[in-house]
Amino acid sequence: MPLKNAGFSLAETLVALALSGVVMLGALRLLPQLQRQNLQLQSQLRLQEELQQMLNVLEKAVRRAGYCHGVCAGPSLIVGQRCLLVRWDENSNGRWEGPEKEESEWYGYRLRSQRLEMQRGVASCEGGGWESLSDPTMLSVHTFTITRRASQVALSLGGASLAFPHASVTLHSLVSARNQR
């Protein structure tokens, strides 16, 4: 009995190699696009997280605004053009410690040079010494609006990723400010 040859012929092997080469070439062309989309999605999520953290800080400040364990004088929440000033009795001593005090209970938030900035102990949104709440190497903040509606404050915060400038996010929040004066 003759032995039967097992395996592929040379022609079958060459066809298989050619087909697998075409498939690999297609996959190699698709891989950079998938990597770029993945990086863009990660950048978008990071941007949204950063903006959400900053919005949480603003919401907390608005909720605290006006708290006083006694008799505090003056407005507790001042809304300006791309600026928010708030006051609350952080140490519950019955008064708002003014901007001249080391432990001042006056806080400011402003948009300047595409950065959201914050400073303790301010009576206006002018001047220096403000610290950035956003990383200027990662994102640019393009929207910071505050609208007061009776006992509610509408906040909008928007920014764009510097790595992917077309990746832009704007977040909105409506905060109840019960302590406002």
TrEMBL record:
Enumerate the UniProt keywords alphabetically.
Coiled coil, Membrane, Methylation, Transmembrane, Transmembrane helix
Q: Which residues form a coiled coil?
A: 31-64
Q: How does it sit in the membrane?
A: Single-pass membrane protein
Write out the GO biological process terms: protein secretion by the type II secretion system
Q: Where in the cell is it found?
A: Membrane
Regions crossing the membrane: 6-31
Any one annotated GO CC term? membrane
Q: Which Pfam families match?
A: N_methyl (PF07963)
Q: What is this protein called?
A: Prepilin peptidase-dependent protein
